[in-house]
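Lesson 9: reading folded outputs for more than one chain in a single document. The general rule is that every protein is listed as its sequence immediately followed by its structure tokens, and records are never interleaved. Here is the first one.
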Amino acid sequence: MHAWPASEVPALPGKGRDLQIHDTATQGTITLAPGPVARIYVCGITPYDATHIGHAATYNAFDLVQRVWLDTKRQVLYVQNVTDVDDPLLERALRDNKDWTELAESETALFREDMTALRMLPPQHYIGAVEAIPGIVPLVERLRDAGAAYELDGDVYFSVESDPNFGKVSNLDAEAMRLLSAERGGDPDRAGKKNPLDPMLWMAARPGEPSWDGASLGRGRPGWHIECVAIALDHLGMTFDIQGGGSDLAFPHHEMGASHAQVLTGEFPMAKAYVHAGMVALHGEKMSKSKGNLVFVSALRRAGVDPAAIRLALLSHHYRADWEWTDDVLAEAVARLERWRAAVSRPDGIAADALVEEVREALANDLDAPAALAAVDRWVELQIATDGDDESAPGLVSRTVDALLGVAL
């Protein structure tokens, strides 16, 4: 599966700072100092509907991570999956009387268009669950053969008790886990499971649903968590720098994935930092496909909204914050974009060397994008109110905003 084209990232003078970021597992801020190649895995979409603002906010956060690392003169190895076979996709295809593969392909294509428009840097490896199946099957077999998985009516489940470190990603108690498991795709009430929290690794073929050859597992399809584990281990190995996604993925998805990988490899932890973006609400409720309270990136673009303004709207909120999308949020972003473009359109201006360092410092401090925007706002106000004589300043500001914030002026 191919990703989307990369926009050029301008080089800035000097060098950026190492990233300090909030780690869900430790509930504290840690400093990441990767080697020459920084490694990140971000969980991708289940393509049964278009990209909404909540998705865009999550991918914007991890785009900032990449930009901070690139500014430290590191390379970035970024991997993202597409869950192109799963219950929600099959249910939507059935509801709309569409072929599930065509639905997945069309929505993934739209996602690529949205990411391109928003200038999100693409992953080097963009892998669909279906194409990952040949690598998933052996992992499930290994877990079963090691006694870390068991069969139940043809399905194969992972035993969470096989991992002594289970629970160290989300730090939730058993009751909270059980409630979230029921809400987020698990089946804690299924009879015959050894532990209600045990997640499915391999689902035996169901009538009328797609299935693949699972060797000794029989025909079926993979569970959600093992999909990402197989892709991450294949392309990043263990103890990569960041496992990322929305805050609703901390449990069960990232918790279960970590346990799968840790049992498979005997190593701990799967990732050095578990980083989670906040949820975006609309009309007082979290934006979600199940509720239908969505603002689509593609719809905003069709309505003539500049993608740079959409990105500025996302950047105006800290990535870990839960916030609400409103018309005012977008209007403020549109006005900010106009001010910034007017300021950098002048032939000369106020020296901007200090601004570059302010933006770097803000982003290195747990991706504090609102502080970075405020720093640019201050420069813009001075630029508009004062006659400067630095001919290089407008260009430097444009390159800084592009390189570090992903906004093309």
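And here is the second record, again sequence then tokens.
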Amino acid sequence: MTRRAGEWQRRLWRWRRSPLRRTSDVVEAWILVAACLLAVAGGLLAGLLTAGAMRQGADGVRDRSRPVSAALTQEATWGAARPTSSALVWGTVRWTDRDGAAHTSRARVPATARPGSHVTVWTDGHGRLTPPPVSHAEAAFQAALGGLWAATAAVGVVIGGAKLARARLDRHRMDQWAEEWARVDTRWGRKTG
């Protein structure tokens, strides 16, 4: 017999008939099988549902966001140190929505923008400023990462539940062992401990 075959026989001892095998051993084996199947199926389902919901949410935000040309009305503020040309700083912008109403608010604008220059800002359906929507690639990455986290959490819950069930079975086996030991010890006519 090879070493690998002997290892599998040790791992599968709960499934073989034996006078030493208890009912709780069989229950534990079935719990492990169910936990493995549930971890795989539950993790996959949780990951796919979460990724789909995140992707759908990002698509919804992208659909509701509209780019609007706005004029910078004041010099952008950047604090103590002058930022690089690619940095974004806060500036006051003015734009007109579809209904012709003028709006003024603070938005992130390029550090090189000067008063009177036009910048692109993003608004929602009500004319309020919003952050620019994420690109399709960023949305796909965020959805994949969210799905991975959800799958990991689902697998963790299943594994935690299986460990809790095994701990309860171990406690039950220890109680049974203590009862048996007390009976055997009494039959011998003495008490230990």
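What the second record shows: The CA atoms of residues 90 and 107 lie 6 Å apart.
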